[in-house]
Design brief:
- By secondary structure, the chain is mainly α.
- It has one domain: Helicase, Ruva Protein, domain 3 (Orthogonal Bundle), CATH 1.10.8.
Length: about 70
């Protein structure tokens, strides 16, 4: 897992990331699943531009032993 690095993303990129995370949460909820607090924190950091989608996936996979 890489270290979080601060980066500046545009408002449009942030909105896109918010939509992607919200869509994923909705899809999970429709399947009866809930996101862990750890995932929610990682997703919030992704939305804020602290890391990219690949890192979000890597963190999630590592959390569940799928790395």
């Amino acid at each position: 897992m890489s270290v979080k690095t601060a980066s500046t993303i545009s408002a449009a990129e942030r909105e896109l990331r918010e939509r992607v995370v919200a869509d994923a949460a909705h899809s999970s909820a429709m399947e009866g699943l809930t996101a862990s607090p750890e995932y929610r924190a990682d997703a919030a950091a992704f939305v804020a531009g602290e890391y990219d989608a690949d890192e979000l996936v890597a963190r999630t996979r590592a959390r569940y032993g799928l790395a």
